[in-house]
Amino acid sequence: MADKIRIGVLGASGYTGADLVRLAVRHPNMEIVALTANSHAGKPMRQVFRHLAHVPLPDLVKIEDADWGSVDAVFCGLPHGTTQAITKKIFETYPQVKIIDMSADFRLRDPATYKEWYGLDHVATDIQPEAVYGLTEHYRADIAKARLIACPGCYPTAVLLALLPLAGAGQIDFTDLVIDAKSGVSGAGRSLKENVLFCEAGEGMSPYAVGKHRHMAEIEQEIGKVGGIQDLRVNFTPHLIPMSRGELCTSYVKLVGGATAADLRNTLVEAYADEPFVTVADEGVLPQTQMVRGSNYVVVNVVPDRIPGRAIVISTLDNLVKGSAGQAIQNFNVAYGLTETTGIEQLPLFP
């Protein structure tokens, strides 16, 4: 394998695309050769993102003007519904290219479920079976062999890393999950929206997409798979909090099989003992977004509930790194047989 793997980034003018570029610039095995952003085509990257002015980067181009034959891997950072057609074209035309998709378009295995949640017909159903769900810690072996990797959403990453080991151990009731989630405003994307204006989002907290957030489908898909429940339903409520990045999920679970909160914590400790990016906090230490800001780390812990037979599982991550761009690079490393931590070993920023 050559020292440098040539990459392209679709949607490089969004927050996730920019964070992907920020991390990729210092990745020793990556060479950025193509950046697309239709609304900013023709501009240098430093004009769109001032913090990237320190490094030489290709100018932004329209998707149709990019030379996909010159790249080895493509990271897709486009909004849902816009990735399928271009991904299908690249996948079928350039068989040497691996695709790491950070959008929602290939996360759901059932096209009917995709249409139910996203309101669109899936136009690449023929390659959907090729997609591997990119939750690295739980699908590493499949990711290593995949050409199309569907990176999870930020909320599902935080929730599933906390709950999948517990579900697999049969310690929680799959059908009684209540998840309270909070995210910084970067999770809403970079496009202009009234609810993320400073005067609208600052100094307050707002629930949104109550009872119908699209990430519910991923959580239900993955926990349902472990539990053998096809039509699993979870209670999930997201909130917008007035900070740029960061995410914290509090999951309220019902214990089964005589399990205790201590048993749940021990299961997580055992499950992630050898994982480089998942930390189970010391007993009694509550996960906080300050522990992970700007990094690819996840911190989880379990606390007993005052209600008998229940426990509280808390997880936190940076929505733009482990919740998106960092996990995408982690998957890239696995797919190319590189050391998994390469390029994403940055410690959290504090304060």
TrEMBL record:
EC number(s) from the headed UniProt entry: 1.2.1.38
Highest taxon, organism lineage: Bacteria
Provenance organism: Aureimonas glaciei
Any one of the GO BP annotations: L-arginine biosynthetic process
Record protein name field: N-acetyl-gamma-glutamyl-phosphate reductase
Organism taxonomic ancestry: Bacteria, Pseudomonadati, Pseudomonadota, Alphaproteobacteria, Hyphomicrobiales
Record PROSITE patterns: ARGC
Main location: cytoplasm
Catalytic activity: N-acetyl-L-glutamate 5-semialdehyde + phosphate + NADP(+) = N-acetyl-L-glutamyl 5-phosphate + NADPH + H(+)
